[in-house]
User: What shape does this take?
Amino acid sequence: MKKFLILFCFLSLSLNSQEAENVDLSNPYATIYTHLFFLQDASYQPEKSAKTILGLDGKKAIEKAIKIKRILDGKGLVVDFNKIPNNPNYNDTIGYSNYYKYVLFPERMPQIYVEKVDDKWYYSTETIAQIDNLYKDVFPWYVESLQNIIPESGHKNIMGIEIWQLVALIMVFCLSLLIFFIIKKITFWILQRVQHQITKSENNLEVKLVLKKLAHPISLLVSLTFVDTFFPSLEFSIEINKWLFLAINIAETIFWIYIFLKLVQVVMRIYGEFTETTHGRLDDQLVPILNNFLTGIVLAVGLFNLLRLFGVDTTTLLAGATIGGLAFALASQDTVKNLIGTIMIFMDKPFHIDDWIEAGEVVGTVEKVGFRSTRVRAADTSIYQIPNSKLSEIVINNKGLRLFRRYNTNLGLRYDTPPELIEAFVNGIRQIIIEHPETRSDSYNVEFTGFGDSALLVMVNVYFKSLEWGIEQTSKHRLHIAIVKLAKELGIEFAFPSTTVTIEQFPDKGNLLPKYNIDKERIDASIQKIVSDFSKNISRDTPTDNR
Assistant: This one.
């Protein structure tokens, strides 16, 4: 019975061994497993591994199979067999829908893949054609020459690492430091020249600090690229290469994120300097919005790259994010409308910051344009938050785009005012307008326009040069005071809604009607006096006004 059990166990082991040693090319998993299994030290049979290469004879096929494995080991690419499909009819419907194909490392080594030929899976003809070039990239020509001149003592092991590998590692590290310092100075000089060519200004201390911070990660990236290129030549174990290249890729991704964030800052700083030279301030408001938008894009792309390095399927994640984003957009249509409205406002530019606008029932000064809404401050200093979707659809009357501020009013004179004084009053106002520094002397109207219920109407229509509300009010004040002084000097009285009962003949009383002096010389002298006093007052007040 004991002998029977021993014989049974021996037969089982033999059958399992034969099964393990069989060449299986029925699916992607079997082909890749066959290739790598028969190149391991414990099961080294390269002629069986070469069966995964189609169309080459024995020696050439073995050479290609070994080179494929060395390329993967040199780049630290560890095959995860749990992710390899074992479906004989596997079809990558996301990226390769036309034929049966499986790429081992689509992001880091897309040139190496297997494909189905008839009923079996082999390394593709494109892969075989590129193997020699890939091998030269990973292991340059000097690698074999250096290994041939390494003495026997250089192959002694210290903690599993040969002495020549330690020496070469130190040399690569020192060279990378030297490259870092050289590239940093060159990069900083180039960035200074580029910045000077764009802005046409000297670099101040703040700009130099930003450029130095930008030159630092660029130099580190060049140094890491140098290490990434030459480290496979040191022929460390695949485990060491795996973790080292993972660390290098993570560092490169972080540095790229940092570089693009600094580039966003530099570009926004240059754009900010440009917007300061433009007339409108809406461009100034666009700077922080663009800065936040570009920063978000850089961080999102960088996060996806980091997840990809840790083995996360970013294609599936992106597809899920797209579906989730669509659902989110449907649930937040108002937010999307406001965002589109913001884009339309910045494209059409119907107003600028500090413009006085009328938008529906809202009247006030534009203070800020945000992602969602626009802030308008009314004359009573209250704040209106208008959604950009609504603001982009309604009619906007932009008072800030006026060439001049129009002022129109009617002055009411008593019905008993003589025609001579009416004419003199109108001419006096015209001369005041001509002398006023804040009114257009080439475009105004002062006319006796009609008869009101209780007054003779004199229309005054003028245009103020300044578009600022405060200066306009000051200009009105000066114009009104001059008109009142002119009326007083001429002896003209302003009418107001009233009922006057006049008794022309009253016992022991004289005539109650006002007495007007229509002497022409006196009228001309009065007008000249008022206009002269107005001009003197304007000349005295102008230096302290600082308009």
